[in-house]
Amino acid sequence: MAKRILYLSDMDCLAYQVNGNHLTCIQTFTPNAEQEFTQYLLDDLKTPIICLIDSVKEEYQMTSLPHVVGMDRQKLLARKMQRLFESSNYTYAMVQGRSQSGRGDDQILFTSLTQSTLLQPWLQLILTHKVPLAGIFSIPLLTHLLLKKLTSSNPYTLLVMLTPRIAEHSQYGLRQSFFSQHYLKMSRLSPLTIDSAPGEAIFDQIVKTQRYLENSRILPPLGPKNSLPILILTENSLKNQLETYPIEKLNSFSPVFLDIAEIAEQWKLLPTNIEQLFPYHLILYLLSKEWHLKNHYAKSVERRYFTYRKVRAILYLSALFSIGIGTLLSYQTFQLIQTVQQQGEQKRSKALQLIEETARLQGQVPNLPLDIVLIRNIVDTGLYLKSMTLSPEPILQKISAILVQHPNLQIQRLEWELKNDFLPPAAPPNLLLNKGFNKGNKGNMPVEKPGPPEFFLENLRLYGQISPFGGNYQNALYLFEQFANEVRKNSYFFQANTLLSPYDPKKALQGQIGSTTEVGTAPFTLEISVKHNYIKLSN
Questions:
Q1: Global pTM?
Q2: What is the 3-state secondary structure (H, E, C) of 373-412?
């Protein structure tokens, strides 16, 4: 995905786009080019923008504060920030560890953009057109990315970088960033004009920075055996000139010259539409790879459209995930219904075969004498078999219609059966083979085998669990009871019995919520019955 970055200096505003390893300068805007910048924004209102500040109008203050955490730290930092930069709207604080002596105070670097005139014209247009602003970052605060990639292991390092011009009378700018234990302590940007002796101009500024560091006690006193490591990033032509400078004049310096083009080639950076490579191009490229970095200066209200964009993305992903899970569960339920239907068809086919066999037997004249009770039993058996030729399709359709409204109930297994208490005799009793009368019956009345009951039950047993669960047994019980009550209210069902509940309050009082094999789950078992009447002889 392409990323847009605005580089804001004291003289120009440059729009860059990073796509993979390609770094392209899209357009350069002068301070009064509001119409051109508006058109640039209108061409793409959705892609987020990062603002990168490289200005002399930025101040740095190192201080120590008592070590506190949480909201107390936030309040303490806010009060200190207000005291240091009272008139500034764009401030930032970076905690850089704790002091090794005394009470272990926090070492904090406070930074501020003292004049917002550099930023406001461009920021106002970005907010007007509702373009997502990912953040406002400071070049000095991002130089640690460059230092980390250059793998400097020295406890003290002075990183020197050329920048584009920062004033009308200057040819370049020279930014010097001092690091102690890889933490930025100060950064200085000064105008620079390179004449026939570029070494004199550059090292003169470095000497001034060294004196400031020593006077401020940020850097310990240096000597011939304790020199200050300096990394100087320049283009190749200037690098060759600096290497000829007599370093022996600088007893306390240990400079290392690095060619920007060689570094870009090592990192596989491919610049496009860029006339001259500067170190900030490397920082800009690294920033595009570290999109998750904490914002420096942008306020929450200025980043609201970027926040809305992230929330929309999360909602879209959640919706897609829900649709995918719903589709998968629907497919599994459909397969289960198909299986149950096939089993029902097999049982129906078997029942039809039995009915046909019964009809065939009824057409045969037996050799034994027939009795009215025997005929009654045969008829009852046939009617019983005909009544039992049921399909599970209706009850599954009813349950499916209710389950759709309860997505948290995940069905794992179904059991379907026909339950009855009528068992027809395997063979006629002996009394039917005689006269059909009971000798102990004083009234000489025929004794009939009891017929089938008024109805039989069709049972469907649901085995499932609450998903997602999360360990909330009371919520799981509530979701299950909602489903069970809705089943009981349906007039199609005769009864619904809970065989296993996700949560038993009585067991919970005894410290037994579930068995050891069910820890972390909320299983349930519900048996649903439908009442069916037997087919009877019509009068």
A1: 0.60
A2: HHHHHHHHHHHHHHHCCCCCHHHHHHHHHHHCCCCCEEEE
